[in-house]
């Protein structure tokens, strides 16, 4: 397919980085041999005993099903995995068989059904984790999928017109920081044309009921999004609420097209639902809570709004009348997470995904008239006894400056003292939430380890003040939160102070490296997955379309003062302080955190006398998506943890 050329470019670049950046490390007399097994490149990783592989197999074969959309025939579309990667499946009836629709080696997104009754649906696919997502239209009548986006582009924000006549999306290239808006009939790729060239990370948010206008959102930072109203015929865009700095989540036109329902934090510490009159930008508050509103969908007739709130990490689903905000009956779901909330085309049902501590994720629907709740899938859990999978306890600990930091505590059976694995989320504005995690369950039940999952300052979900506490020159305050958690854990009699490990990916990988830099004397080791090792080289080498977005969070490395600060806190510049064992894991095609970030921390730690474990997947990007690669990653992680924690 067209992605092959792009994949070759990324793989070649990744291979060059492997050969070039690591040369000093490999030249050392005591450096380990670099071994290649298929698409995996590794150092220091021992042979995996069959017993480890077999015990992990059950946990690794846990599957989930995510709701995508309602199918015109009365069934639903879901995404799930029965091979290497997630693919689109059709389920004709509740608890019925899953019929696979797409059969790619690469991961696919969920199906977005064309709202014209044709049964066609759009989906996206990238190659080797490069995140250059291409749009495809699948026609069930022919069982064929046709690409409608341009080669060598990254595409996002796909939105159908109400009648399904056209689809709109944003597109850019590797080095271009600015996106353009395209639209046309995806069944006729030659009809796709550029209608607007914007600035920054713009994306279609919704299309008016009559198809004449489009709302475009430009994401600047977690605290700021700019909305514009685009006249599709003229190509002219006008700002919405231009004098206000606010963040916007979901956006939907009202049924008459004269106003917008938006999720926003304007004049509020938390995100709520507002209605904005497009004629004069006047507003009314539709609903608000003491927590963030997250997902939102408007019924096709504009009468109802379904939305979720994030109550300290737990999802709550609500249904209200759009005109009055009055509550309507909503399903009472078990404690967990709810996502992909979507009304059916006729507005009679609501579909969504639900995840809990004992369920890895399944598709559900709710009939509004009868209040009937239906479970469509029951995903496999590898034969494991899910009754042992208990929800974690939410506790708070005091950080260095008195800030109370929330942490989810997963405890194994027995009195301990238990080894501890601190799992740090990425983002940095993400939020750790208590859903199903097979990795955690393996650590708890097979390794006997407690798992601590903090939401350090800078995490979303706790208000605007909290999310901004780690910006730019405050970056290491979040690392100090981990230091305080290490001390808190060491003071608990149920935990073993001499066996504490840090684990994290992306920004969480940076946090692992920074924690090892500051607290190696208190840690048994750390596992860094696709982590930033130097903020300056990261900002200079991340994909061009991402640079300004990341500068808004980390600071602009082109400013001398900011550059000096970023260099001063970057782990690659202080590798001599990383004395605890380290495992580095990376995808060669990662467009976010380039392979060079992993190679330079590997070389720096080796030069300082360390001996890290190292694993690169040549066919992966920002994290491992292929099942076989994930299997090996977990096996290698288990060997590393077993060694540094002194487990049998």
From TrEMBL:
Entry's Gene Ontology BP terms: proteolysis
Q: Does the keyword Transport apply?
A: no
Q: Which UniProt keywords apply?
A: Hydrolase, Signal
Q: Which GO terms describe its molecular function?
A: serine-type endopeptidase activity
Domain of life where this protein originates = Bacteria
Q: Does the keyword Cell membrane apply?
A: no
Peptidase S9 prolyl oligopeptidase catalytic domain location is 436-646
Where in the sequence is the signal peptide annotated?
1-27
This one is known as: S9 family peptidase
């Amino acid at each position: 397919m067209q992605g092959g050329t792009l994949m070759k470019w990324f793989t070649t670049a990744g291979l060059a980085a492997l050969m070039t950046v690591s040369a000093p490390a490999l030249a050392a007399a005591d450096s380990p041999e670099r071994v290649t097994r298929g698409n995996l490149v590794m150092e220091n990783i021992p042979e995996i005993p069959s017993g480890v592989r077999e015990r992990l197999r059950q946990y690794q074969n846990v599957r989930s099903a995510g709701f995508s959309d309602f199918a015109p025939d009365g069934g639903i579309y879901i995404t799930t995995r029965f091979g290497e990667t997630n693919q689109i499946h059709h389920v004709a009836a509740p608890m019925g068989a899953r019929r696979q629709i797409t059969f790619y080696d690469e991961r696919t997104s969920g199906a977005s059904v064309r709202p014209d009754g044709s049964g066609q649906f759009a989906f996206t696919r990238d190659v080797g984790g490069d995140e250059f997502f291409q749009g495809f239209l699948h026609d069930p009548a022919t069982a064929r999928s046709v690409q409608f986006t341009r080669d060598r582009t990254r595409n996002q924000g796909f939105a159908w017109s109400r009648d399904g006549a056209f689809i709109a999306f944003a597109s850019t290239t590797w080095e271009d920081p600015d996106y353009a808006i395209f639209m046309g009939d995806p069944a006729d790729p030659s009809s796709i044309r550029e209608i607007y060239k914007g600035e920054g990370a713009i994306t279609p948010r919704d299309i008016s009921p009559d198809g004449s206008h489009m709302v475009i959102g430009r994401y600047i930072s977690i605290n700021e999004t700019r909305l514009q109203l685009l006249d599709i015929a003229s190509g002219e865009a006008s700002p919405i609420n231009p004098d206000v700095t606010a963040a916007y989540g979901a956006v939907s036109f009202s049924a008459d097209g004269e106003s917008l329902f938006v999720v926003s934090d304007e004049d509020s510490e938390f995100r709520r639902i507002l209605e904005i009159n497009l004629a004069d930008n006047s507003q009314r508050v539709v609903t608000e809570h003491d927590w963030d509103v997250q997902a939102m969908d408007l019924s096709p007739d504009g009468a109802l709004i379904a939305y979720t709130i994030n109550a300290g990490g737990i999802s709550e689903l609500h249904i209200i009348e759009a005109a009055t905000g009055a509550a309507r009956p909503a399903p009472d779901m078990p404690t967990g997470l709810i996502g992909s909330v979507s009304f059916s085309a006729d507005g009679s049902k609501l579909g969504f995904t639900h995840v809990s501590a004992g369920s890895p994720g399944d598709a559900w629907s709710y009939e509004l008239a009868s209040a009937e709740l239906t479970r469509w899938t029951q995903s496999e859990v590898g034969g494991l006894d899910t009754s042992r999978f208990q929800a974690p306890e939410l506790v708070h600990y005091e950080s260095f400056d008195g800030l109370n930091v929330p942490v989810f505590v997963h405890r194994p059976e027995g009195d301990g003292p238990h080894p501890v694995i601190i799992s740090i989320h990425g983002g940095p504005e993400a939020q750790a939430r208590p859903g199903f995690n097979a990795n955690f369950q393996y650590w708890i039940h097979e390794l006997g380890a407690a798992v601590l999952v903090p939401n350090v300052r800078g995490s979303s979900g706790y208000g605007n003040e909290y999310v901004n506490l780690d910006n730019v020159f405050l970056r290491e305050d979040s690392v100090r939160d981990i230091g305080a958690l290490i001390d808190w854990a060491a003071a608990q009699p149920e935990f073993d102070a001499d066996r504490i490990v840090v684990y994290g990916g992306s920004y969480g990988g940076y946090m692992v490296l920074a924690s090892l830099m500051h607290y190696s004397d208190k840690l048994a080791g750390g596992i860094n997955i696709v982590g930033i090792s130097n903020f300056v080289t990261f900002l200079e080498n991340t994909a061009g379309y991402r640079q300004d977005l990341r500068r808004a969070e980390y600071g602009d490395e082109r400013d001398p003062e900011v550059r000096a600060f970023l260099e001063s806190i970057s782990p690659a510049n202080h590798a001599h302080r990383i004395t605890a064992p380290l495992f580095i894991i990376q995808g060669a095609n990662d467009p976010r955190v380039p392979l060079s970030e992993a190679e330079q921390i590997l070389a720096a730690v080796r030069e300082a006398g360390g001996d890290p474990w190292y694993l690169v997947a040549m066919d992966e990007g920002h994290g491992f998506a292929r099942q076989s690669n994930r299997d090996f990653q977990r096996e290698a992680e288990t060997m590393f943890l077993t060694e540094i924690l002194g487990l049998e």
